[in-house]
Design brief:
The protein has about 190 residues and is mostly helical. The chain contains nine helices and no strands. It is globular and about 55 Å long.
Length: about 190
């Protein structure tokens, strides 16, 4: 099955997600810089969520470039990922408005943890379709970044009820960890 429709659909959904997230940014009530202060938590939650969605888009692009063909399992795994990413605007707005509360901070982590789990399932579905001996399987290897990310999310979710700043720092850490595209897959794409 050709992968072009899957790529185009995913790109469209991710573009809509980013558009919906930016709509959460409201015009300040005032004309001086002090009017921006109440909007800073919403802006920072938007920036972090934008980074996450952009990282997923970038790595998704590289993953599909390294994919030779798709099947129904890959299509469903991709939809699973898009489902969790589609919840980003909701949780971004919630944590932005209630940035010092435990539940919004924890649910923010749950949504992005589930997106990370879904991305892992997508990777595994592609590897299963291409074979354990494929170049993609070799490039992914032990996937230490993926495992470190999943663990960081789990810890951050729990710590949201102790100190939301630590959770926020862990969410930023995971984003920074993935800011550079996955070079393992990028290498395969260049060779192809």
């Amino acid at each position: 099955m050709p992968k072009t429709r899957l790529e185009a659909f995913s790109d469209g959904v991710i573009a809509i997600i980013i558009t919906i997230m930016v709509l959460e940014l409201r015009t300040p009530h005032g004309t001086d810089l002090a009017a921006l202060r109440p909007l800073l938590p919403v802006f920072f939650s938007y920036v972090l969520s934008f980074m996450y969605v952009a990282i997923y888009w970038n790595n998704h692009h590289h993953l599909l470039r390294a994919t030779k063909h798709i099947n129904a399992s890959i299509m469903w795994a991709n939809l699973h990922l898009l489902f969790w990413l589609s919840l980003a605007p909701f949780v971004t707005g919630w944590v932005g408005h209630y940035h010092d509360a435990a539940w919004p901070t924890a649910v923010y982590g749950v949504i992005f943890l589930m997106a990370a789990v879904a991305y892992t399932i997508l990777q595994n579905s592609i590897v299963a379709a291409q074979g354990k001996q494929s170049a993609l399987a070799a490039a992914l290897g032990g996937d230490w970044k993926g495992k470190l990310s999943l663990g960081s999310y789990v810890v951050a979710i729990g710590l949201a009820f102790v100190n939301h700043w630590i959770s926020d720092a862990l969410y930023v850490f995971v984003a920074l960890l993935w800011l550079v595209p996955d070079r393992r897959i990028e290498h395969i794409v260049k060779e192809a």
